[in-house]
Design a protein that fits this description.
- The protein is of the alpha+beta class.
- The chain has a single domain, classed as Electron Transport, Fmn-binding Protein, Chain A (Pnp Oxidase, Chain A), CATH 2.30.110.
- It is about 15% helix and about 45% strand.
- The strands form three sheets. Strands 3-2-6-9-10-5-4 form a seven-stranded antiparallel beta sheet.
- The termini are far apart.
- The mean pLDDT is about 95.
Length: about 160
């Protein structure tokens, strides 16, 4: 990474974000999960959200082909889950409890919130793809958020 890109990354790291894990099923039926802090609301009418995935991700094809996915907003007790899905093998669901939704999307237990989505659009954007989803169902729970700031995990 060049010095200017490293400096840009450090500058962008000054924006505190929540942490999510986005799950889907690959075409072969294997569960996929990836840690993402690029989640954002887009619209209430219709209900749309977005997140970004790097073109270098080893699970990229699964997310590009998925018709449905779930976004799990992590609570401050779920740093281990965030770290687990931040690894390069995003298909590793070993020791992770989950169930399958009606749309065959892996659903993690607990957390602060979950949004079950249908893929609405994928936009090519630089070294990432922006994935926009229509929110089909959502749930929210009590708790404190797991945050990411300045390259480190943080809590309220």
């Amino acid at each position: 990474m060049t010095d200017s890109l490293l400096e840009l990354r450090q500058t962008l790291g000054k924006f505190a974000t929540g942490i999510t894990v986005v799950t889907c099923c690959a075409a072969d039926g294997r569960a996929c999960g990836i840690t993402a802090n690029s989640f954002s609301s887009v619209s209430l009418e219709p209900p749309l959200v977005l997140w970004n995935i790097a073109k270098s991700s080893n699970s990229l094809q699964a997310y590009l082909e998925a018709t449905h996915f779930a976004i799990h907003v992590l609570n401050d007790q779920q740093e281990a889950i965030s770290r687990h899905f931040a690894k390069t093998d995003h298909k590793a669901f070993d020791r992770i409890q989950y169930r399958m939704s009606d749309e065959q999307v892996p659903i993690l237990e607990a957390g602060l919130a979950r949004l079950d989505c249908r893929t609405e659009r994928v936009i090519d954007a630089g070294d990432h793809h922006i994935i926009i989803g229509e929110v089909l169902r959502h749930e929210a729970y009590d708790g404190a958020p797991l945050m990411y700031y300045n390259g480190n995990y943080a809590r309220f």
